[in-house]
Specification:
This protein is of the alpha+beta class. It has 12 helices and 9 strands. It folds into 2 domains: about 80 residues, 2-Layer Sandwich (Phosphorylase Kinase, domain 1); about 240 residues, Alpha-Beta Complex (Aminoglycoside 3'-phosphotransferase, Chain: A, domain 2). The strands form 3 sheets. The chain has a 5-stranded antiparallel beta sheet, covered by helices on one side. Helix 6 runs antiparallel to helix 7, helix 6 crosses helix 10 and helix 10 packs antiparallel against helix 11. It starts with 7 loop residues before the first helix and ends in an 11-residue tail after the last helix.
């Protein structure tokens, strides 16, 4: 269906030097950004519409340029109108890594594409981080406060919000202490630039090249954050064998950048700790769409993601009380699709 606001017309006419194009609305992400596909003959572009921005201090452009300079594949910017909040981008098509995963006959058939995704993470974590030129990603970080906010988002929207679990003072104090311990340990890890949302829907495949999108929230954080986002992605069901192969591949590709005292045992432990935090944060996001605006589309991802949280918690006996709350609240058995 062709649908767009009239005020887009002057910008598009200027940008592509024609008025013979058609504009189609695209499904957006979970943000307030709007996306359109602009088609002219055999050519197409994607138009991103958001609020007006300062091009010299706009995270989307700042991170895009910094990533591109360090070899990360990102979409090419064709034109923009900062005062109107418009950016015209290269069209990367519709083939996401998620779709490639589910279309593959076996998980291993998607392995080469996942390795391409890991190649991009390596460039983000290492060359892009070592390049200390101006970028908004260096100005914000995952610290204890941010990690805690994300975990409490899961508690507030899933446990208290959707499941109506009655926290008493004692339980609330114990769960808060566990969250603080998890988040403090993660904050104390060395930090690299993290994409922040590095999952299969934010990785586009075009002409056998992997391109990274939705990177505007990049910030400093542990390397495990992006690795958990990709290997324990809620939108696919990657098996442990494939995940281990990809983690091994990441570490091999990163070996020149890792410290001399690198410990695989410590890396793996932080990976599990990050899985608790990152996956529970995802549960909070999925639950919030329903709890705050009655959007049921993401409820189907809750059960699988909660199983990942529980599996990681079981690696830490000291966090048993968190596991007990998940069990007692009915979080693991709830049929979320029937809400």
């Amino acid at each position: 269906m062709v649908t767009h606001d009239e005020y887009l017309v002057p910008f598009l006419n200027r940008s592509i030097n024609s008025d013979a194009y058609k504009v189609f609305s695209l499904a957006g992400d979970a943000s307030n950004r709007r996306y359109y596909r602009v088609v002219l003959d055999q050519h197409s572009w994607v138009l991103m519409r958001w609020e007006p921005f300062d091009p010299n201090n706009y995270p989307f452009l700042s991170v895009l340029n910094h990533f591109a300079k360090n070899g990360v594949h990102v979409p090419h910017v064709v034109a923009m109108s900062p005062e109107e909040g418009l950016v015209l981008l290269e069209d990367l098509g519709d083939l996401t890594l998620e779709r490639k995963f589910w279309e593959s006959q076996t998980q291993e058939n998607s392995m080469e594409f996942y390795k391409m995704a890991v190649d991009e993470i390596v460039k983000i974590h290492h060359p892009a981080t070592l390049d200390k030129s101006e970028c908004t990603a260096f100005k914000i970080q995952f610290d204890t406060e941010k990690f805690l906010w994300e975990m409490n988002y899961g508690k507030d929207n899933l446990l208290s919000g959707v499941l109506k679990f009655p926290f008493n003072d004692k339980t609330n104090k114990e769960i808060s202490d566990i969250f603080l311990d998890v988040c403090t340990k993660l904050h104390n890890e060395p930090k690299r630039i993290a994409h922040r949302d590095y999952h299969s829907r934010n990785l586009m495949i075009k002409l056998d090249q992997m391109t990274v999108i939705d990177f505007q929230d990049a910030r400093l954080g542990p390397i495990q954050y992006d690795l958990v986002s990709l290997m324990r992605d809620s939108y696919v069901d990657m098996n442990d064998s494939m995940a281990k192969t990809l983690i091994d591949y990441y570490l091999d590709q990163s070996k020149q950048y890792l410290p001399k005292d690198f410990s695989r045992e410590h890396f793996d432990r932080i990976y599990e700790l990050q899985s608790i935090q990152r996956c529970f944060k995802a549960c909070g996001s999925f639950a919030s769409f329903y709890h705050l605006r009655q959007d049921k589309r993401y409820l189907k991802y809750l059960s699988g993601t909660l199983r990942r949280v529980m599996k990681a918690i079981n690696e830490f006996p000291e966090y048993k009380m968190f596991a007990d709350v998940l069990i007692d609240s009915g979080a693991l058995e709830r049929k979320y699709e029937t809400l």
